[in-house]
Amino acid sequence: MRDLPLPLALTARLSPVAVLATAGWVLTSGPAATSAAEQQPSEASAGQPASVPSASAAAKTYASPPAPCGSINVATVKSLVPGAKTAGKEIPSTDTKRRRTCSWNALDGYDYRWLDVSFEITDSNQAAQKEYKKRITEKSGGGSVPGVGTSGYSVVNLTTEDKQQTREGMVLIQDANVLVIVTYNGSNFETKKAPDTDEINKGAIKAAKDAVAKLESGPKNG
Fold this sequence. Notes:
single chain; 222 residues; Protein Transport Mog1p, Chain A; seven-stranded antiparallel β-sheet; 7 strands
């Protein structure tokens, strides 16, 4: 690759992308469920059996996320982000038992690519399913990704700023009580054009498959 000064468009692109990549680091959790043990039966119902949550309602398959920078195969990183350091860079998290994220990005000639993967641990399989449905509703216009995790969804969007196109794909996978989020985007700072939808969508799905395989190969509860 030639040694070239960083295009102004790249500098402009890096700032918002970095903000987007770090905006979701703080993981908010819903109100804690009241334990059945804390709910004492009244005298009127003392003769009746206490209501106990079903085992499935408390199911939690994974206790913690895997190391994110080791979740994407080296060959996949080289293919999707030419010129990037394959080790990636883990983004600091306020709670590494709840969320971990790794990013790769590089400029190869005038072609720029950015890939990141996040693992979010929720309190139960049901909580993950609820959050998954909420997020795919917010990111409408995509389609399902079959055969990966419990449920999968992908969406690709094109943005144009100062005549510079950027195409970004997002894949969201629910696997038991974990949400796996992959973001992959690209731009060309010479032509001002973005990669086509198929390239970005297939790349994001490929990375998501790697990430889910890594998650599923790790330790599970029970």
